[in-house]
Amino acid sequence: KNLSTTRRPASGWTGFTAVLHFRGTCYEIEVKREGPGNQVSMSIDGKTINSTLIPVPVDHPEKVTVILRIG
């Protein structure tokens, strides 16, 4: 099971941050609009992920950092 990142912020937004506690893990999520359009790139704990799904880790770390870049 994964967390979905299918929602996109409005074109006038520069970004936002959120904290989500899910299945014993704290997800620190930062969304950054870096240009026009809805192209998305994502990194999790510094590693680029080619998906719009945030995988739920099986080892249940205390914290996961997610950065989404849009544009």
What does this structure look like?
The protein starts with a strand and ends with a strand. A hairpin with a 2-residue loop joins strand 2 (15-22) and strand 3. The chain is built from no helices and 7 strands. Helix content is 0%, strand content 55%. The chain has strands spanning 2-4, 15-22, 25-33, 40-44, 47-49, 53-55, 63-70. The radius of gyration is 12 Å and the shape is elongated. The strands form 2 sheets. Strands 2-3-7-4-5 form a 5-stranded mixed sheet, with no helix packed on it. A two-stranded antiparallel ribbon has the order 1-6. It is mostly beta strands and 71 residues long.
The secondary-structure class comes to: mainly beta
Overall average residue pLDDT? 88
Distinct helical segment count: 0
Report on the biggest sheet.
5 strands, mixed
Strand order of the largest sheet: 2-3-7-4-5
Please give the number of β-strands. Answer: 7
Give the ordered list of helices and strands: EEEEEEE
Helix content: under 10%
Rg computed from alpha carbons, rounded to a whole number of angstroms: 12 Å
Strand percentage lies at over 45%
The shape, in one word, is elongated
Low-confidence parts = none
Query: What is the rounded distance between the termini?
Result: 27 Å
